[in-house]
Amino acid sequence: MSRYTGPRARVSRRLGTNIWGTKGETIALEKRPHPPGEHGRSRRRGNVSEYLLQLQEKQKARFSYGLTEKQFRNLYEEANRREGVTGENMLRYLEQRLDNVIYRAGFAATRPQARQFVNHGHVNVNGSRVDIPSYRVRKGDLVEIREKHRNNAVLQWNVDVLDRTAPGWLEKSGLGVTVRELPVREQIDIPVREQLIVELYSK
Q: What strand order describes the sheet that includes 176-179?
C-alpha cells in the first residue's frame, strides 16, 4: 500500500501544525512559520477561502493517520452510512486502526513507526499475529507486542523514554493494551475540525 514518503516539514508548514510529531517539524515551524514555496511569506493565513479551510482539515487528518486519498474517502463514506455523527464516526474509525493503537499506547514514537512495527509482524491481536496497519480493533481486544520482539531496542527506548500515557479508552499493561471501550470525541486529541471534512465531502 502506498504512503507519503516526501518531505514532512513542508507538509507541516503548509498546514500550520506538526503533523507527524517529530522534532524536525517543530524546528521547521519555529524557524519558518509560513507556508513553503517562493511566495510562502506573502500568503495570508487569515484571508483564506472556505474550501481551503475544509481541504486543510482533511489533509491534516489524512496525513496524521497515514491514509491515501482513496482510503480516506472510503472511510468517510462508511462513517456517513453509520448511525450517529459522521465526523465523530470517522475519527473513531481512524483511532481504532491497529497502527494508531500501537502509537497511542506509547510503543512507537510516531504513527509511521507504529505502522512499521505492525507491517514487520511485531504485533499480536488476541494472541494472533496481525500485520495489517488498517486492522480495526474492537472493544475487548488485547493488542500486545509479540514475545520475540519485546527486546527490540527502539521499542524499549519508546517505552522507557517517551512514557506516553494511554488514552482512557485503552488499558495498558506492560507491553500489551486492552481496548476497554470505543473512543468518544472527547478522548481524541487530534487538532482537527471534523465537521469541515464532512462539509467538504458533502458537496
A: 128-129, 123-125, 142-145, 176-179, 170-173
**C-alpha distance from residue 86 to each of 72, 89, 90, 95, 154 (Å):** 13, 5, 6, 14, 37
At 85, which CATH number?
Answer: 1.10.1050.10
Q: Is the pTM of this model over 0.90?
A: no
Backbone angles phi, psi at 12, to 5 degrees: -65, -40
Same domain as 77, residue 10: no
**Could you give the CA distance from residue 21 to residue 164 in angstroms, rounded to a whole number?**
13
Q: Which residue has the cell 511485531?
A: 122
**pLDDT tens digit string along 91-114?**
999 999 999 999 999 999 999 999
Give the chain's mean pLDDT.
Answer: 88
CA 13 to chain centre: 18
